[in-house]
Amino acid sequence: MIINILAGGPIDLVPDLTDFIQENCIWVGVDRGVFFLLERKINPDIAFGDFDSVSPEEMVEIEKHVDHLNKFKPEKDETDLELALNWALEQNPTEIRLFGASGGRLDHFFANVQLLIKPVLANNLTTIYLIDQKNSVSVKSAGKHTISKDVTKKYISFVPVTLNVTNLTLKGFKYPLNNCHIPLGSTLCISNELLGDDGTFSFSEGILIVVRSQD
């Protein structure tokens, strides 16, 4: 099962969502993202938010078309997206995709990246991707991982988010590494590329953000 979540970030950065429609897929709307989904003829299965960013007329449309609507007061400890992501993780999907979660306010963006890290810290095996028109962001814990070529996003960067990432090895990359120590703040692993159809990266300790990008 795959869960697609559309938040209320800048809609011009959201990719064509029809590319992500498939069987056994659940759509979740977050705040204004619910209305964006309805505009694109995608009926969300469930919605979350305080809905302070939608007009009264838009709220009427949302209430008309969404059966499972979870409304919250603006004064709360979690962001709307965090509430939706917590619910999604409880469903034990194989994959979660976040859209409308980048661009606009930087505090929102950094908070959303932090949401990708939390499940990794809790040893949750669900893969979460934050996706916009030019980027795909995920977070990986220590181990060996395979990565395949994406012709739409040829650049691959690895950003440490823990104090140390140890024994980082990149195979099948234009700029390979062998058992390298990558400290927090390092830019050594920015803007790499695969040589063939796939490659591997592995490390023995730490957490990495993996960013796949296009110009």
Would you write up a description of this structure?
This protein has 215 residues and is an alpha/beta fold. It folds into two domains: 2-133, Rossmann fold (3-Layer(aba) Sandwich); 138-213, Rossmann fold, CATH 3.40.50.10240. Helix content is 21%, strand content 37%. The chain has four helices and eleven strands. It is elongated and about 55 Å long.
Secondary-structure map:
Layout: E1 2-6, E2 25-30, H1 32-39, E3 46-49, H2 56-65, E4 69-71, H3 80-90, E5 95-99, H4 106-121, E6 127-131, E7 135-148, E8 155-160, E9 164-171, E10 177-183, E11 198-213
Parallel strand pairs: 1-2, 1-5, 2-3, 3-4, 5-6
Antiparallel strand pairs: 6-7, 7-11, 8-11, 9-10, 9-11
Low-confidence runs of at least 5 consecutive residues: none
Instruction: Please work out how many helical segments DSSP would assign.
Output: 4
Please report the total strand number as a whole number.
11
User: Do you know the CATH topology of the largest domain?
Assistant: Rossmann fold
What is the CATH superfamily classification of the largest domain? Answer: Thiamin pyrophosphokinase, catalytic domain
Mean pLDDT: 93
* Inertia-based shape: elongated
| Class of secondary structure makeup | alpha/beta
Beta-strand fraction estimate: 35-45%
According to CATH, what is the class of the largest domain?
Alpha Beta
| Count of folded domains | 2
How much is the radius of gyration in Å?
18 Å
Helicity, in percent? Answer: 10-25%
Biggest sheet, in brief?
11 strands, mixed
